Amino acid sequence: MKKNLFAAFVVAILSICASNAYAQNYAVVDSEKIFKSIESYNTAVKELESQSKSYQQQIDQAFDELEKEYNTYQSVKASYSASQRSAAERKIISREEEITKFQEQVFGENGTIEKMRDEKLKPIQDKVFKIIDEYAAAKGLGLIIDIASNPTVLYYAPSADKTQEIIKIVNNN
Prior knowledge:
- This protein has 173 residues and is mainly α.
- Helix content is 75%, strand content 5%.
- The chain has 7 helices and 2 strands; from the N terminus they run αβαααααβα.
- It has helices at 2-23, 31-36, 39-76, 82-107, 112-120, 122-139, 163-172; strands at 26-29, 143-146.
- It has a two-stranded parallel sheet.
- The longest helix has 38 residues, at 39-76.
- The model is unreliable at 1-12 and 17-22 (pLDDT under 50).
């Protein structure tokens, strides 16, 4: 009986030790802080924002001009013949389609802005993610949680936050 109790006690202690050894097999990082620490990333983001704003202004201006054209048409359409009304309406619809197509070419899924984002930001992101992968492998981590994009993380031990270590590695590469 004493041997069984002693064996159970030893197994329990070993289980606790083993679980403690694996307890910190994770780390957390704040990718937003990491990216903000990279000057080339910040510059690229500013360029993208500036270019997006410029394109949006062009699109807004085109739609404003189209609205003026439509309002002018509305005010004079009573004096137009049926063929003149039809031609004016086709012209307005065609112009709206052109503007919408341009908007899609710029801001769409495979648009100019998305291509610029891939060209300017993706290489930096790939570098950071590679460094994080290498860091995790070197430290024997099985999991890295990004606290910048995961609002459901309710608590993490400050010792698990490896953001500053990753920032140092990124800035030294």
